[in-house]
Design a protein that fits this description.
alpha+beta; 3-stranded antiparallel beta sheet; about 30% helix
């Protein structure tokens, strides 16, 4: 999975992931020259896990200087509001996609060969006398492919 380079705008605090390094990127929000950060993130995995926005907020808090001459608090607040709206839309979209995905079906497999062709011989019986954890008789599962019993 390709990693994305992070660029931050010192005027509005916009953080933009870009797949390749650029010499002079402009902010998509306020068109100010952005600064390249050393941090990289695997964007698609982070987005699916819901950690993308928390990562972005952590990067902004760590790298933005509110006392800098180029910093504009009005643009910063407006961008924050836009990010919250975008985060809500993204969360709604991810929840809709996850709701449409089928539940994973567990298919038991043979621990030796990995074949799903296994047979259940019935419940395992336990000796009731001295050692209740000791099994008696046949093992519960048999692989129809390699014959392994467990």
């Amino acid at each position: 999975m390709p990693e994305y380079h992070l660029y931050i705008c010192l005027r509005c605090g916009n953080v933009t992931p870009v797949q390749e390094c650029r010499d002079d990127p402009k902010c998509s929000f306020c068109h100010f020259t952005m600064m390249h950060l050393r941090d990289t993130i695997p964007l698609p995995e982070s987005l699916l896990q819901g950690t993308y926005w928390s990562t972005i907020r952590r990067v902004i808090k760590k790298n933005i200087n509110r006392n800098a001459k180029v910093f504009d608090p009005e643009l910063f607040d407006k961008r924050e509001q836009n990010d919250r709206i975008l985060e809500q839309q993204t969360t709604t979209w991810v929840q809709a996609v996850q709701a449409q995905m089928p539940e994973p079906v567990h298919i038991p497999r043979c621990p030796t060969c990995g074949s799903p062709n296994i047979y259940n011989r019935g419940p395992v019986r336990y000796q009731a006398a001295l050692f209740p954890e000791q099994r008696i008789g046949l093992k519960q599962f048999v692989c129809g492919n390699c014959g392994y019993e467990w």
